Amino acid sequence: MEITGTYNWILVAISVMAAVGASFVTLSTVPRIYSSSSDRRSLAWVAAFGLSLGAGIWTMHFIAILALKMPIPVQFDISLTAISLLLAVAVSSIAIYPLRFSGGLKPSSLRTYFIGTIMGLGIAGMHYSGMAAMRMNATMHHDAVIVMIAVAIAIIASTTALLIANKLRDTHIFSQLPTKTLAAIVMGVAVSAMHYTAMEGMSFFETTTKLHFEAVIEPLIMAIFILIVAFLIQGGIIIVALFDEAYSTSKSAAKALKQRADINQSLSEILSLALESRTLSETLSKVLDVILDIKWLALDKKGSIFLADDKKSELTMVVERNLGEELRSLCSTVEYDRCLCGIAAQNKKLLFKACLDNDHVTRPDGVTNHGHYCIPILAPGGLLGIINLYVQHGHQQNDEESTFLTAVADAVANIIQNKQLESQADKIFKAIDQAGEAVLITDFNGVIEYVNQAFCSNSGYSEEEAIGQNPSLLNSGNQDVAFYEKMWKTIKSGEVWQGEIIEKRKNGSFYPAMLTISPIRASDGEITHFVGIHEDLSEHKTLEAQFRQAQKMEALGTLVGGIAHDFNNMLAGMIGNLFMVKKKMHGMPELTEKIERVEKVGFQAADMIKQMMVFARSEEVKMHPLSLTTFIKEAFRLHQIVIPENIKLDKQIDSHKLIIMGNPTQLQQMILNLFGNAVDAVKKTKNPAITFRTAQFYADQSFCTKHIGAKSDNYAHLMLHDNGQGIEEAHLERIFDPFFTTKEVGKGTGLGLSMSMTIVKSHHGFIEVKSEPGLGTEFHVYLPLADEKEDLKNIEVPSVAVEGNGEIILVVDDDSNLRHTAAEALETLGYKTMMAENGREAVEICQSIAVDVVLLDVVMPEVGGPEAAREILEKNPMAKIIFATGYDKADSLLSFKGIESIPVLSKPFKIQELSKSIRILLD
């Protein structure tokens, strides 16, 4: 017979509440599983979860059984009851175990549903094993459909419970109370629904055979026991969870405080590095050490820092730690978007990798699995670099690490920008400090705050002497007060002032300068300082003077070249006539000697013209070995003429030969110029005296330092001293300038000393002047000695003119006087002569008459000498021609193309030289 029972709805409600309460406690233990710092504690909380949920379900189950009132006695089997309890605890613990790991359970994962199914089947097994523990004089029958529904409810409830637990695993016990309460109600009702659904599928039939029960528990005792145990278990678990949470919170807070302290200390150390005087690479090396030494970051002691080049889209490693030689080489430069660092650079975002993956393309041989933090160093202007750090394989990224490393990158960005600004500022400072122009910076009131090296060099004031002073220390007095007032008015109005002024050095000397003063403005536009750039124009003025001198020399060359021809023609006519006079005064030695002196002066005048042309055109002169001692002794015979008898002359000529490579004409001119100046200098002196000495001199180091180009060697030293009025210091610097003279107007050309300087330089020598007003002037000339083994040039002895044998000489010159003089002189030597005044006449004469020698002037009207010579040679290739020119010989030769072999005589020439040249051609 079927037995039916009725429910005690109070106990039914209690059973549901027990399930809900157990669910709440269970959900509160989930965060403890996930947040436990050790495996042992985590496993303990897994067991606590299983005990809470399993005992809760089991409690609901037995209270629900007690709620069913049967008309027959019901008792329970202790063994099966214990098994049902252990089964509920075990499956709950096993199901929650995956929540220990960070991955957790996901709704889309098959694993979640598999675990939920196992847990549901375990709960169903607990239910039916608990039902099987019932002992009564009746049999139980189960409806298969209802059983399946109950099992399905158990699986769904279990899966839902696991997903809810996974969702709430990182919460505090009493946080999100509405969510937890609702979740506990859903779980409790679902578990209760499974039980009551399963109970609905059960049927009881009374048996005829009465059973005798042993070792059974009375239902009332069982209910009381279950309630007490359930309360103790759930209450104990929730209390322990509260204490554990409080402990963990305290520990986490302490850890967070320590981390914050470490963060602050690390950031402070990093920022303080920016204040140290290190290079950027040294600073970044220290930064990397600070990062790798932070223990709580759990980093490997490996890493590197790259600097970015946006133009090349490339990273360059500047510092590294423990990377190894191969990796250092492979990662010395990294392109944007290549490997992890390049990807972080391209995206400008922090990149974390827990292991090696496809993005990690740079892999040296033998590399082990590892992870990375790649943190971009960003600034408003773009990417500055990348910090690359290594972590263990499987490392879990967390917000604290990311936040800290981002803060470090920001600090490093400031360091890089500051170092770049420092480097730029240092370059600008060095550029200003080492500039060739003097730079001076003052405050608004004109007090000097900065001067550069060129200022100190130009002005003679040291930095310490100048700073704190006013720029007026450079005032020379050449500019009046109104000038400076206008200057200050201009710059204080915010405009730039520029002008040429004369400034005074510390030693009192003056120098020209181009001064530019600009205002320096603050960010608000207010003028705070002034910067003055003083360009020393001394060299510029010197170059300008040299340019003017070159113009003067060009003008002089033009002048000399213009008069040389006519002057030489005059000299040639004079010397020719002297030759004829001398021949007619044969047997009158006294008159002949005087005529020879005049003749010699004429030739020296011609040499003077040549030297002036050389001086004006800076042309090379021919040098040959000569004894300076012998030369000076010979030269004094001429110089005595220009030295008045009232001047005491003290000559001290060295006995050594003093062999030099020199040009006699130039040397004579130099000595003549020096003596001429000395004579003029002592004219107003009471007891005029001139001292002249020659000696051998060895150039020591001080001499070589003083004279650029000098060598440590032997020199011939010439000293000329006068006791005249002396030369003022202001004039000494210009004493060798062309056309500069201290003499009265009309008393000097200003070319003497300038020509002397040119002559000395052409002999690779040096000239010095020393003078004091009232004490006289002293000139020193140093000429390098030559090897004494050099052959000395013999002094030419005037040769006797070679007589002619009636040969016809055609004299061609546009100067009538010279033409007739030359013809007459040649006739006295036994030649027959013909004359022509230009090249056209000469060509016509040569075509009509057989001429033995043609003496051709080079420059003539209508047809010049070279053109006429070509026509004559074209008609008669055997014609003999001699050129004569009053112009510069070198210039004349330029027009002799094709006829270079024709001999050339420079006017004025000696008749003996002409006759010798004629005989060479004829013989």
UniProtKB/TrEMBL annotation:
Residues 808-922 form the Response regulatory domain. InterPro entries: CheY-like_superfamily (IPR011006), GAF (IPR003018), GAF-like_dom_sf (IPR029016), HATPase_C_sf (IPR036890), HATPase_dom (IPR003594), His_kinase_dom (IPR005467), HisK_dim/P_sf (IPR036097), MHYT_dom (IPR005330). The modification 4-aspartylphosphate is found at residue 857. Keywords: Kinase, Membrane, Phosphoprotein, Transferase, Transmembrane, Transmembrane helix. SMART domains: GAF, HATPase_c, PAC, PAS, REC. Residues 424-470 form the PAS domain. GO terms for cellular component: membrane. Residues 7-205 form the MHYT domain. It holds the Pfam family MHYT. Its EC number is 2.7.13.3. It catalyses: ATP + protein L-histidine = ADP + protein N-phospho-L-histidine. The keyword rRNA-binding does not apply. Residues 495-549 form the PAC domain. NCBIfam families: sensory_box. This is histidine kinase.
